[in-house]
Write a structure and sequence with these properties.
Layout (H helix, E strand, L loop, with lengths): L21 E6 L5 E6 L3 E6 L4 E7 L6 E6 L3 E6 L4 E6 L4 E5 L1
């Protein structure tokens, strides 16, 4: 039996001209999605073995994402500064809360 090596593309946020480092990761507890936070303050969903990009939203302040919490109903993320919290309700509208 021979195994085949296939390299998959790295996780980068494609909107930026230069790739942004990933600063936070969270596995979704109810679906096959990997949520990633970038150094530029965005959260993005990746699904399928090919790493297709899905939903993405800003966390605020254009600072690195510090933590991502994925639950069965929403995904909440905060940045390294206390400028606000980004939230995505599953099946709903993107919400933005700032302090």
């Amino acid at each position: 039996m021979t195994s085949t090596y296939r390299q998959i593309p790295s996780l980068t946020y494609q909107r930026d001209v230069s790739p942004q480092p990933i600063t936070a990761l969270s596995f979704d507890p109810v679906s096959d999605i990997l949520w990633s936070g970038t150094n530029s303050g965005h959260v993005c969903a990746y699904y399928t073995p090919q790493g297709l990009r899905g939903v993405h939203y800003p966390v605020g302040g254009h600072y690195a994402v510090k933590k991502i919490l994925a639950t069965d109903t929403s995904v909440v993320a905060c940045g390294v500064t206390s400028e606000g919290i980004g939230s995505w309700s599953k099946g709903g509208v993107n919400n933005w809360y700032s302090k």
